[in-house]
Design goal:
By secondary structure, the protein is of the alpha/beta class. 40% of the residues lie in helices and 18% in strands. The protein has a domain at 3-167 and 200-223 and 274-287: NAD(P)-binding Rossmann-like Domain (Rossmann fold, 3-Layer(aba) Sandwich), CATH 3.40.50. Strands 3-2-1-4-5-7-11 form a 7-stranded parallel beta sheet, with helices on both faces. A two-stranded parallel sheet has the order 6-13.
Length: 301
């Protein structure tokens, strides 16, 4: 049994992760600003940067999992919203690292979320963990997030997971796509040529569990299925799985009008062709490596 603390443990990835860890017998505490939202695990109230009793739990834990941060797709990118997205990650990660530093001689592991937005818009270029970072707001946020996590390296094993587009029907990008596709109004966005590096949520949870159990896991891992798809091919696959046509494109100008140019360009009209080189080389096997099977699982699940 491991003592695990999860920041962001009541969210889209965090809640099923906590249930999974509890099922295998781990002691799991969830850091939260609102304990009433925690349905699994032991709720610990926290409000960083303010210190509290939660800090002792973090300092005494074996594993700290940091998923905390405002949803980058949760609203139009105003300057205030962008500051919130950045600061939520800076404040939470700084607080976790500071708490772990209270007991520097205790073996710690920090598993820190990041995202493939780190690479920026790279066209058709295949990208692995050694590829350089790109430009744009998402790259700036993920670079900052990862650098803060690495400040714990003197006293912790640090694993950084760059997540792709996580597929599950109860949240994330897929949940927003299901209604128009089910109504037969789905299709590619913009040119449809931009790459979508996706991953089934089950494989995200398995990758986090793998990072916990493999003491040799260290550094950055891309958490994306080994078969990224263009936006056009993703739309066709979703149409096949739903038995609906997927031929109605959403023009780029409409997305820019709805979301603002910066957000539409970075989140929907550009992409990254990301490959999970390190994970596969070190023995991690994806349960859902093919898109049609992953979509079927995500929607039925």
């Amino acid at each position: 049994m491991k003592r695990i603390v999860v920041a962001g443990g009541s969210g889209f990835i965090g809640e099923p992760l906590v249930r999974r860890l509890l099922a295998r017998g781990d002691d799991v505490a969830v850091l939260t600003r609102n304990p009433s939202k925690v349905r699994s695990g032991r709720a610990l109230s926290w409000s960083p940067p303010s210190e509290g009793s939660w800090g002792e739990d973090v300092a005494s834990s074996d594993i700290v999992i940091n998923l905390a941060g405002e949803n980058v797709g949760g609203g139009r990118w105003t300057e205030a919203r962008k500051r919130g997205v950045m600061q939520s990650r800076v404040i939470a990660t700084t607080a976790l690292v500071s708490a772990m530093a209270r007991k520097p001689n205790k073996p710690h592991t920090l598993i820190n979320a990041s995202a493939i937005g780190f690479y920026g818009d790279r066209g058709d270029e295949p990208l692995d963990e050694d590829s350089a970072s790109g430009t744009g707001f998402l790259s700036e946020v993920t670079n900052t997030w990862e650098e803060l996590a690495r400040t714990s390296e003197p006293f912790a094993r640090v694993v950084i997971l760059r997540l792709g587009i996580v597929l599950a029907s109860d949240g994330g990008a897929l949940a927003r796509l299901l209604l128009p596709f089910r109504l037969g109004a789905g299709g590619p966005m913009g040119s449809g040529r931009q790459w979508m590096s996706w991953v089934d949520r089950e494989d995200v949870l398995r990758m986090i569990e793998w990072s916990i159990d493999h003491d040799t896991a260290l550094g950055v891992y891309n958490v994306t299925a080994p078969t990224p798809a263009t936006n056009r091919d993703f739309a066709k696959a979703l149409g096949r799985v739903l038995h609906r046509p997927a031929i109605l494109p959403t023009p780029a100008f409409a997305l820019r009008l709805a979301l603002g140019s910066e957000m539409a360009d970075e989140m929907l009209l550009s992409g990254q062709r990301v490959l999970p080189r390190r994970a596969t080389a070190e023995g991690f096997a994806f349960a859902y490596p093919e898109l049609d099977a992953a979509l079927t699982h995500a929607i039925s699940g």
